[in-house]
């Protein structure tokens, strides 16, 4: 699967942009502020419905525009995705002319994985960052089975919280809401636990095959389910202290919505031991390990890979190794750089996969050839 055409209007500083990338490596150069990172962000929004840079959609709309619109064509599937969002309304998304109402539908059609300068947040950020990372992998590896589980779990949490906030619920009503919450929580817990084991295995194999990344073998990953693991979830919910907090706050206090991934280094929190640079490298590797998990499965579409300005932060040895690993995946890649000389020698690439080069200037993109 690859994107053959992208049209962008009113998105940050991009307007009236038409981009026809190649099916494999696409290197996008340009000065700071030229719009190259916005181009990658537009690709990400087209595939997920949200940005990896900001939480709200309004900053995405050009200051002089009322809305942004994105359009992309995928091959060989023939999918055509259109998206529009104004300052006042939700996204309007259509695929081949049919309205799409959920982000999971979009993600299944155009999976995207972004490697960014903020990947150290997998170590330093809060549990929500790691849950989002974990659930990206669970969804794409177990797409048919996990999608309904995620939807049922979200609905069960909302129903239970609504009942708790009302303050006037009978014991039987509470038991009914809790029963459904426990049922879907168990399903989600099983999916996450199995995926975490697979992810750690693929991550360590990735590191073991590289002298540059060998230090990453020491990283440990433990799944914390969102309650005291010495108890069942039902037991945790029944504890008097938990029930008292739920009555006071109207919010379910324990469960998969409070889950986390513990990143450990020799038994200690990795964020307390590793440098920021090491955390960035390992954050990138964890995302590549997610793609390895997908590559091991039959009839699975690998995600489009976005690499936003990594050459500015990684030394040549680590950058070369990242590109070598990405070269092993049969998928489309977009990379932004300030200039071509930031990337390793062309000999790194497979002979049939030499990158296509594009320059972004003042919100416009055009192809060019590197001089020999």
From TrEMBL:
The family database entries (InterPro entries) matched by this protein are listed as: DNA-binding_RecF, DNA-binding_RecF_CS, P-loop_NTPase, RecF/RecN/SMC_N, RecF_2
| The keyword 4Fe-4S is assigned to this record | no
Q: Its GO CC terms?
A: cytoplasm
GO molecular function terms attached to this record:
ATP binding; single-stranded DNA binding
Domain RecF/RecN/SMC N-terminal positions: 2-342
| Positions that bind ATP | 30-37
Q: Which cell locations does it reside in?
A: Cytoplasm
Which keywords does this chain's UniProt record carry?
ATP-binding, Cytoplasm, DNA damage, DNA repair, DNA replication, DNA-binding, Nucleotide-binding, SOS response
Q: What is its main location?
A: cytoplasm
For this entry, the protein name equals DNA replication and repair protein RecF
Q: Which organism is it from?
A: Natronospirillum operosum
């Amino acid at each position: 699967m690859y994107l053959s055409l992208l049209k962008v209007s009113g998105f940050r500083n991009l307007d009236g942009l038409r981009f026809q990338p190649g099916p494999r490596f696409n290197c996008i150069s340009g000065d700071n502020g030229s719009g190259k990172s916005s181009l990658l962000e537009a690709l990400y929004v087209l595939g997920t419905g949200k940005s990896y840079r900001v939480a709200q959609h309004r900053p995405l709309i050009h200051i002089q525009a009322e809305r942004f619109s994105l359009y992309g064509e995928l091959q060989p599937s023939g999918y055509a995705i259109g998206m529009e969002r104004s300052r006042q309304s939700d996204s309007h998304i259509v695929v081949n002319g049919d309205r799409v109402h959920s982000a999971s539908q979009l993600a299944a059609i155009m999976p995207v994985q972004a490697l960014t300068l903020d990947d150290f947040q997998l170590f330093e950020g809060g549990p929500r960052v790691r849950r989002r990372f974990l659930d990206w992998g669970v969804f794409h590896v177990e797409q048919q089975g996990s999608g309904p589980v995620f939807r049922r779990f979200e609905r069960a949490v909302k129903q239970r919280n609504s009942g708790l906030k009302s303050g006037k619920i009978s014991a039987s009503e509470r038991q009914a809401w809790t029963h459904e919450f426990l049922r879907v929580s168990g399903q989600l817990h099983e999916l996450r636990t199995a995926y975490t084991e697979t992810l750690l295995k693929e991550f360590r194999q990735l590191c073991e095959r590289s002298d540059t990344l060998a230090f990453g073998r020491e990283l440990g990953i433990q799944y914390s389910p969102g309650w005291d693991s010495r108890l069942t979830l039902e037991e945790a919910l029944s504890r008097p202290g938990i029930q008292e907090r739920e009555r006071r706050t109207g919010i379910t206090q324990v469960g998969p919505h409070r889950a986390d991934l513990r990143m450990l280094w020799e038994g200690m929190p990795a964020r307390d031991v590793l440098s920021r640079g090491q955390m960035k490298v390992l954050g990138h590797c964890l995302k590549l390990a997610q793609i390895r998990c997908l590559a091991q499965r039959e009839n699975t579409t690998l995600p489009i890979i976005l690499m936003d300005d990594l050459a500015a932060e990684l030394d040549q040895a680590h950058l070369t190794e990242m590109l070598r690993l990405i070269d092993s995946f049969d998928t489309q890649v977009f990379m932004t750089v300030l200039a071509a000389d930031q990337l390793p020698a062309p000999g790194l690439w497979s002979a049939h996969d030499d990158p296509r080069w594009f320059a972004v200037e003042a919100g416009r993109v055009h192809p060019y050839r590197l001089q020999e």
